[in-house]
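Might I ask for a little of your time on a matter of protein folding? What I wish to show you is a protein chain and, alongside it, a tokenised description of its three-dimensional fold. I should value your view on which stretches of the chain appear to form regular backbone elements. You will find the record immediately after this paragraph:
***
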Amino acid sequence: MSRTIVAFYLLLLSCAIGLSIYFSRLIGNIGVLAAYGIFLTISFVEVTNRQSRSLSEINIPSCHHPAIFIPAVVLWVVFTIGYILDPSFRAFQRLGAFTILSAISIFVVPAVISREQAFRAIGIFSAACTIVGFPTVFLGDYTILGLKFGQSAGVHLITSNIGYSVPAAFFDSVKYYRVLVAIGTICSGGLYFRTRDSWMGIAFVLNLFMVVLTVGRASILAVIVAGFLTIVYRFGNTRALAGVTLIGGCIVAVVVGISFGILPGPTELGKSLLGKRVGFWSASYQAFAARPIIGWGLADTAAIVSEFYPLGTLTGTHNSYLRLFVIGGSVGGVAYLLLCASALLLAFQAVRDHVPFGLTTFCLVVAALIFQLFDGATIFGTAISSILWAFVIGYAQPTVSSGDTVG
């Protein structure tokens, strides 16, 4: 195992531990920053040695397709302007994570770690976390040698009398665990069905089982859609894949439109499916409308949106796309939509061109876009969900590391 692969595992571990019950967010963010520094240093040294260059020559590997790079640069500029207009220490932390760390995740990691290597690492790491979380189902919160290893996110009732503890592993919130096991399921499944690696098959089963046990609607939906897209492509072609994806996008748009009363239809049915999110999204839109040009900057988005939500406690925007409109106004929101759309198109092109693990990449991009419909986290940040989605966007680019196995 190369040092860059070890450093990649360290990235995953630091992002997970940073959201754990063991450390504060400040300590966790410092750990993530250190892991990124280690990864960047090792990547620089290994690539320089491979090319027989002097270490004095700065040669940081990167891949940057214009369709991804240009919207990202626009967003970085928007974030910087937001910080200048409303500076604070918290905003400064966000600015660093939203620019430097995202640049490494999207443009450096895919140039150093191949799709196969990254997907394998994510699948294995997720399966390892699944093993940690599984005893919680039967034991609830449990400790080993006085150290708390697994915690429960509540009880899920199968019937009125039968239920189990929902595992959250060592995460301080089960939502991060749900994203990890869902992405891990798609990664390990993609590798298993392409390479028939028995270890990936085991990881796939473990991750899929945990997706079910954590009962996250977005994670279950993302995995089901990924599986359905795989079946459509295997028994159809790229045209069928494009058609099903387009139809799915239209269905989402119609449901959201009906829920908000923009389109005619059973409004209450849409609200029953989306729950309080309709109110959260409405408040987020009102916050954007109050500052439609430059947005509110890198301040606490939930605190800002809560001023437009009179119905009780607001827990966040619960929509990544709306959150970027709140943060960066029209410019930031449109740039983020373009970045996500570009990633989807590039991933589809990878499927069409029969790029190794192109279908897995496409399914991962679709899954990331689904998650962001219901989660306020974006591809910018230090949370494990943000990091994973940033990796996915990066691997949609065609000029990634060429270490993939063709077969």
The longest strand covers residues 152-157.
